[in-house]
Amino acid sequence: MIDALVNINLNRTLDVPKTIESIEKVKDVEWVRLVMGPEDVIAYLETANWVALEDALFGISEIEGVTKTDSRVMFPKNLKKGEKSTMADALVNVDMDRGKDVRKILSQIEETKNVQWVRLIMGPDDAVVYVETPNWVELETTLFDISEINGVIKTDSRVLFPKRE
User: Residues 2-46: pLDDT tens digits?
Assistant: First the structure.
């Protein structure tokens, strides 16, 4: 099972209750709540697999009145170390302390288990990291290990959908 929280912005000039009702009808949406903050609503999804999650996310984004979505895949609950789960890959944007030795920080990130590559980038973040793990437990551990490296200020992770066959 794959769970996700979807932060959603709405076009408030349209019928907001109707838009929320449409979101609630999307397969695998468990609940939708109005919130105070940068988003207008949050939806909680419980899906059977990656394909179902992708379908649900596309279903939400195509609803009239939905202007933006920002999804957060959640680590599985009750998954124990060594337990089998699906492969989990992620791209991780990293902000680094420019007062530190950036080459040393990059080297430490590259040496982290499950890191495939690291690249400096231009933009609001300093680097992007590709992580490939055999399961969710390993992904969680790897993301934590990267965030704990001296000189890493912030990480922003994006879990990747597996390729459809």
Answer: 888 898 999 988 999 999 999 999 999 999 998 877 889 989 999
* Domains of the chain, earliest start first: 2-73 (3.30.70.920), 88-160 (3.30.70.920)
Backbone angles phi, psi at 47, to 5 degrees: -120, 160
Q: In the numeric block, which tokens belong to residue 41?
A: 């609503």
Nearest to 24, CA basis, from 40, 9, 41: 41
- The phi and psi torsions of 162 (rounded to 5 degrees) equal -65, 155
The answer to whether the Cα torsion of 22, 25, 27, 32 is positive or negative is positive
pLDDT tens column, 103-143: 999 999 999 999 999 998 877 889 999 999 988 889 999 99
- Tell me the backbone φ, ψ of residue 36, rounded to 5 degrees: -100, 130
